[in-house]
Amino acid sequence: MTVERTLHHFPLDPASRQVRLALGEKRVAFHEVAERYWERRPELTRLNPSGMTPVLVETDGGKTLVVCESRAILEHLEEVTPEPELMGRDLAERAETRRLLQWFDRKFDYEVNGLLLHEKMEKRLLGLGAPDPANMRAGREALRAHLGYVEKLLTERDWLNGRRLSLADFAAAANFSVIDYFGDVPWTDFPAARTWYTKIKSRPCFRPLLTDRWPGLAPVAHYDDLDF
Amino acid sequence: MTVERTLHHFPLDPASRQVRLALGEKRVAFHEVAERYWERRPELTRLNPSGMTPVLVETDGGKTLVVCESRAILEHLEEVTPEPELMGRDLAERAETRRLLQWFDRKFDYEVNGLLLHEKMEKRLLGLGAPDPANMRAGREALRAHLGYVEKLLTERDWLNGRRLSLADFAAAANFSVIDYFGDVPWTDFPAARTWYTKIKSRPCFRPLLTDRWPGLAPVAHYDDLDF
């Protein structure tokens, strides 16, 4: 019996994008349901009481397993489809990957997404009025600090958690890519980060993200350019 | 060679408390360093670039492993000290535990801690002035909604993720216990949650949390009362 998978996601949600990249890298086939999470569709809330994306539904014969929230899905995928291994090969690598997952899920999310994406994307999707320039400026400053940190790591390392591609790279790329959709990543000032992002962007797992478009939210011209 | 462990934590940090409960339940001995994370002690930032607690440092002979952030530490402990198992015995249990970890780490943290603990605790620790009554009111309302959700789960289940104690219970109890330190949990309106909390509070792993006191922040009278 093969497992059938359906991912409920919002294309411009960094958490959903982490899962799409992991599924793509592991060459796991899945159906997609694009969710407008802010509309609180009852079917989505029934699957995940928090009402948030991503949610992975696996059916295997008559059995259904619902896995909610990005970290739960990523840990689950490492358990059920261990190859290629993306968390890390030993305790130290896994600790470093998970530290960086938390970094992007919380610190980056609070400091950058909570300001920049909220102003540029959520306010439009939810009809909350015009963006606040002060918030956008604060978000862009925080973004530069985070890019600086990634730049520093990448001058010492091949990939974010060390010598091998991991979920840490996908977490970072998922977050940067949504900001990049709106043209707000100052790549030219961060050459090592830019080279790293070019490598991730060129991977087959990234292709579906480059075709994402959302009504009313057009991406910048270079968004899907592999030689940006 | 035995592994020596040191936990850098802040006693009233819900994320740190999750780890202390897990270590206690697994009967893993550890040294403690109480951190005032808001003072950005260089040694803490060197261990964890985010500057946040908790951080677990393991030394085994000459080898040192640093594990930063609560989720990373909890997943790590399940790998290195699997008994008693606290994540869940099968994929469905683990998915449910991790869903609830995310619920408390993000949703509860945003909606309750970000308002109520920020106003009642952080502002005092960081010298940010008087609490804002509107924020406290909004935080208390959100707290009631979360208690209602826990109450609903506990009328259907013995423990939060199902039939066995798990990290989901520790995540919930860690968060509620810090609010409870300040006397803000309306237990009487949520009888199933109250019974569940009494059970957790009576466990040996919880004892160290009941003796926590922080200068300038006195707990309410019933805080360490097992029959509250």
Automatic annotation (TrEMBL), chains A, B:
Span of domain GST C-terminal: 90-223
Tell me which domain of life the UniProt entry assigns to the organism this sequence originates from.
Bacteria
Entries under PROSITE patterns matching the protein: GST_CTER, GST_NTER
Q: Name one Pfam family in it.
A: GST_C
> Per its UniProt record, what Gene3D superfamilies does this chain match?
1.20.1050.10, Glutaredoxin
- InterPro entries on file: Glutathione-S-Trfase_C-like, Glutathione-S-Trfase_C_sf, Glutathione_S-Trfase, Glutathione_S-Trfase_N, GST_C, Thioredoxin-like_sf
Q: Which residues form the GST N-terminal domain?
A: 3-85
The record ties this protein, via PANTHER family, to: GLUTATHIONE S-TRANSFERASE GSTA, GLUTATHIONE S-TRANSFERASE-RELATED
Record's protein name: Glutathione S-transferase family protein
